[in-house]
Amino acid sequence: MKSFSKRTILITKTLLAILVVSGIKFFFAQTFPELYTNELGVVLVDMIAYVPALLLFFAGWIQVYNMDFKVNSDFLFVPFYALLYFMLLIAVKAIVVHSKGYDVLQFIGTLKTLSSRLKTQYLSFLISGPILEELFYRGLVLAEFRKKFNANWAILLSSILFAIAHVDVGYSFIDFISIFVLGLIFSYYVTRLKNILWCIYFHLCFNSMNYIFSYFLNDFL
Description:
The chain has helices at about 1-30, 40-65, 80-100, 105-110, 115-120, 120-145, 150-165, 175-195, 195-220. The protein has nine helices and no strands. The chain is globular. Helix 3 (about 80-100) crosses helix 9 (about 195-220) and helix 8 packs antiparallel against helix 9.
């Protein structure tokens, strides 16, 4: 019973941290929408939302994981892995769209939903997002769950929360699953090799491919 109580407190505390981060971002989106019309404004919101939580848990995170920030040979293959996953995701979306009887133009329309937002939020999408999200979800949330759960449960729970936090207008179930799988990959790598820099780099590469692809759709199609 005592162990269950500690787990309950841990989950509640972690969920509260996520709700605070999401709440801060929602507050600024509703109260100061002009911040989301320029790239620096979005980065500022990211910093205000994530940094306080990271500072509160930073010492415990380092103690739990003793993270490695070194670049190793695995980094050479990260862009290839990110491209492979991105192409797989596009293929799955195309198959699903085709199964629903949509034509090519409708499929392109579903892929363009992100592109208008990326034009004013590219710094957040390519820099502050990957760095702060990885430090928060892998460095804080995953580490907190590892204190009271085994590795598999910690990876699963943190990945679910990572996917839920990314739910947005226009996102499909496939988008949710793709983000959930990314969370599993990042969490597994951090748990096994303790190198969070790899996750940040992979996250940046994957977001970059989304960004480049969205511009290709707008400029050439």
